[in-house]
Design a protein that fits this description.
This protein is of the alpha+beta class. Helix content is 21%, strand content 23%. It has one domain. It starts with 6 loop residues before the first helix and ends with a strand.
Length: 208
């Protein structure tokens, strides 16, 4: 996989894309010495995934959220995922999870955890594509099963977020053919074009 740009370059890209953040504050944070090949992620409480999704671009087409996922921002980290309590943080050791295509989320999660890794949340998956949009390829896209939504009774909603490429059919609309698509899949279903994105660890980002 192509290494990520340094954190300062990633910060500039978020600012250039128009992410609603304090640019000066982010630039100060990005000056800190950070590990190589780490992803800069805005905390979802600072910038929710519904705001980031349209900033993904593929062949000049902006990303979109499927019409039946108006509750995207209600999907939070699953048990066992500790997102740093800071406006921005880092992810190391990203992997798209191509080796698990045609697995269901229910099957993939234990394997990721047993390997000592952590599944990406939807915000993290989008943040990755903002920096490296070429990670979304035809027949090689990914789920972000680190995010789930809880029902009022405490049980998990059966949907798991995912990001793939629209074919412009149905409610997606022809204009979205080839565009990055933030949608969902059932936790027990398998898809031949979706892997399971994960990382080695989450790291706090603070001034050096």
């Amino acid at each position: 996989m192509t290494p990520l740009p340094d954190v300062r370059t990633q910060a500039d890209r978020l600012i250039d894309l128009g992410v609603e953040i304090d640019a000066d504050r982010l630039r100060v944070l990005a000056q800190a010495t950070t590990p190589d090949d780490t992803l800069l992620v805005p905390h979802p409480q600072l910038v929710p995934p519904s705001s980031l999704a349209p900033l993904i671009s593929r062949d000049g087409k902006p990303g979109f959220v499927v019409v039946d996922m108006t509750d995207l921002d209600e999907f939070g980290p699953i048990d066992g995922i500790d997102v740093p309590d800071a406006p921005f943080y880092l992810l190391s050791g990203l992997d798209r999870g191509d080796n698990m295509v045609n697995w269901s989320p229910d099957e993939a999660l234990p394997s990721i955890v047993d390997a000592g890794r952590t599944p990406l949340t939807i915000n993290e998956g989008i943040a990755w594509l903002l920096q490296q949009p070429d990670q979304l390829e035809t027949n090689h896209c990914f789920m972000t099963i680190g995010s789930r939504m809880r029902k009022p009774n405490g049980r998990l909603d059966s949907r798991t977020p995912a990001i793939w490429i629209s074919r412009g059919t149905g409610r997606d609309g022809k204009a979205n053919n080839g565009a990055p698509k933030v949608g969902w899949c059932w936790a027990g279903n398998r898809h031949t074009w979706l892997g399971f994105a994960s990382a080695a660890e989450r790291l706090a980002l603070s001034p050096g």
